[in-house]
Amino acid sequence: MKALHQPLRRALHSYWAFERLRIAERALDEALDAMPEPSFVLRSDGSIEHANPAAEALIAAHSIVAVLGRRVVRMAQLEAGALEPLWREAAAGQALEVGLWFADAGRVRTALMHLARLPMEGAFELRWPFASVLMVIQDDDPERARAGRLQAITERCALTRAQAGVFGLLARGVTLDEIAALQRVRISTVRTHVRHLLEKTQTRRMIELLGLLVD
Questions:
Q1: CATH number of the domain that residue 77 is part of
Q2: Which of 183, 186, 184 is nearest to 166 (CA)?
Q3: What is the CATH number of the domain that holds 184?
């Protein structure tokens, strides 16, 4: 009789160990789904194993992320060819933070993409055996957002380095006279840069121009 109890104890131990993993697995889903930031569990090729409600809403909005067959093919300004090396780096253990910019209702917006390796053990391995990367999208801070918008507008409107430099200083509240002194150029040169900025960004007044860099 005692010989029968040993296999039974082993079976019960295995059952409860499995149940603990299952409980932990459900807790992972609940924790991820409770996060306010869009969060994705990905394979190293960008295939989505899990997306929390905020991430699903981001996908449905079609503004920042493009998904084809549950595979991320674009994130803001980054196409699949630029994303894949980042996912591979994250899967190899490199934590990454990447600045994003994208057009939303005619305005340039910015965000941060955080990438980290998913722990492949215990409940994580049971829940997502083929996944390797956690991707979280977070709103940018104001200073970085301004820099990201400036970069986006510089590329989109083909601004020269001098024009972008003037634009950035204007956004920080530097006057035309102060810009001329800082850059050691004539005030007329600064005014010419401003005129070109208005033309290239298709804005009519300085307030509209500066409005491109702020929410």
A1: 3.30.450.20
A2: 183
A3: 1.10.10.10
Q: How confident is the model at residue 30 (pLDDT cuts 50, 70, 90)?
A: confident
Q: Provide the domain count of the chain.
A: 2
pLDDT digits (tens, 9 = 90+) for 9-26: 454 445 444 455 566 667
Residue 71's pLDDT band, with cuts at 50, 70 and 90, is very high
The domain boundary residue, chosen from 140, 158, 185 = 140
- Contacts of residue 149, Cβ cutoff 8 Å, sequence gap at least 6: 101, 108, 109, 110, 212, 213
Q: Is 137 exposed, middle or buried (0-12, 13-18, 19+ CB in 10 A)?
A: buried
Shared domain check, 162 and 128: no
User: What angle, 0 to 180 degrees and rounded to 10, lies between the N-to-C axes of helices 161-171 and 187-201?
Assistant: 90
Predicted model pTM = 0.64
Is the same domain home to 103 and 188? no
Looking at 140, 173, 196, the residue that finishes a domain is 140
